[in-house]
Predict the 3D structure of the following.
Amino acid sequence: MGISDVNELKIDPAFVLPPEFRPKQVEALQQLDEIPVIDLAPLLANDEKGTQRIVEQVAKASEEWGFFQVINHGVPLKLLDDVEAEALKFFSLPLEEKRKIRRTLESPLGYFDTELTKNVRDWKEVFDFVTRGKLEFAAPDGKLIVQENNWPENPPHLKDACEAWKEATVGLAYKLLELLALSLGLPATHFSPLFDKADTNFIRLNYYPPCPAPDLVLGVSRHKDSGALTVLVQDEVGGLEVRRKDGEWIRINPRRDAFVINVGDLFQVWSNDRYKSVEHRVVVNEHKGRFSVPLFINPGYATNVFPIPELLDAQHPPKYREYNWGDFLQARKTSNFKNLGVENLQISQFAINS
Ligand SMILES: O=C(O)CCC(=O)C(=O)O
Ligand SMILES: [Fe+2]
């Protein structure tokens, strides 16, 4: 029996990836420092020239990697310490206790430990909440659907810590959205109307428990983020890997003082492929649990997504057909809950074949 066969006996087969998708841990660790790190201090100081340089760095990183880190972002680390402490208290509770606020298809906010990415179970536990407190939208039959945040009774301060975190990070995310607009040669506030008053932003607390067979599973299987922009902070354990253009998986150097930013599928379509939404995954390890907090910046349900006309001309015809963000989101949520036996909805389905 090989090493992996022995490992296989230690975990539920629902987590075990097909061999071609399993992580190669050693190689990735040698390539920690490649993802660009952008210093936001000039932006916060309203230094115009410095901000222009940041815009150029954002354009380059988004084109080459789809990912970058930002430092000197102005979000106090104390807020992260508080969210982490409260979240770890929550994730340490007995499973029956956590499952009292379990996410369902009808009420998708709260705790979840059985997420499927591409139909394999992720080695993680999550807690999701929306930054607006609740979401309201019309179902296909016209009925109003209301989805509210589901806070646990225990620990009692999780909600306060998360709300303070939200206040501090959403502002940063919108500044980054402005930098991205500028980086495409658009007015800074180009995207604002899609988010004002109707965004579908959410924050996820991720806990990746230590795993006895880290070579067979992933904390999050390879995927692309479907929204506009992800603003993530991770602890010092590390494990987030990005797929470089040559196909190699590169580990992002874990820095508690940095946010990891990536452009999602919406920027790929809006920019007509100038910025690509890049595959990433999370590798777990045998000894340490890992904590991360992504903020997903997503527009309102009614948003129709299409390549931005200002970026098109005769040499650059549109590469995507228009689609509706709300419909896309609902289709995705359904496939995350059920193993539909098919790849979930991808933007490639809206690609125009030239
Ligand atoms: O935990 C991480 O570092 C990444 C999580 C992620 O990619 C996701 O939730 O979409
Ligand atoms: Fe992701």
Notes: The two ends are 50 Å apart (CA to CA).
